[in-house]
Amino acid sequence: MSERLLDATSGLEYTIAGDAKNPKRIVILLHGMGSNSEDVQQIGDIMAINIPDSLVIMPTGPISLKSLIPADQLPAAEAANPGVDLEQARSWFGAAQVQGETLGEVMDSMSKGTQAMADQLNKLMDGKIAAYSLKNSDVAVYGFSQGGVLAIQSTIRRKEPVSSVVIHSGYYLGEENITARPPVFFMLGDQEEAGWKQAEAQDNPMADLYGPSAALAFLAHDRITAQKHVCQNLGHGFNDEALGMSINFMRKKFGITRPPAQKLSAPKPPGL
Fold it and tell me: What pTM did the predictor assign?
């Protein structure tokens, strides 16, 4: 298990996999809500093996779930999650401060809520790019669930597009101040998609914010090219297909043509 490091510029803790001495490529791997960098270490190790000459950086969300739970509800939360360290279960954005009456106003408030964390992640990326004399095109960003939200919200704020962005079971709220448009791989499970289709049929307003149809429509509206893929026999989680498709998309956008180093098999799924 990789030791957690601290990036002084961004203030983010992270673990690594792959080439930390002279990498030609950097992959940022963002966990989901309730997880941390250690939970996705095995996935990072597999990415590092199959994306040659890469350094995989796995930041840990700075906000603990424990800090988001009211004190009077904490005992019940701990009892409902035996064996889970709620201090080490992390979030990127914390409690959502949603404001507004119209859908547009709500989306705007939620987008603003991601900005500080996106800026923090961009500081981490800027520092690593400079340290290894690389370019934005030498960077790929993968994010699962809430990490997928951060992946796209941070990369569209960069001066130049990164090589690729994978949004795995995440969403996109749209953005007015877009400075870069990286190619996006938008992926989710078939069981998850079926749930969202049911929500849309029932006119559930959550689908208008978080659903895949909404995300793809917002990406198209913002002129961000996105490729959709639905993984079979998968809900809100991870399997071999999801791992393989993610890695292959990043490899393709990096211009890597030689075959992967090993058969791509997913380890235990990351947190949600």
Answer: 0.91
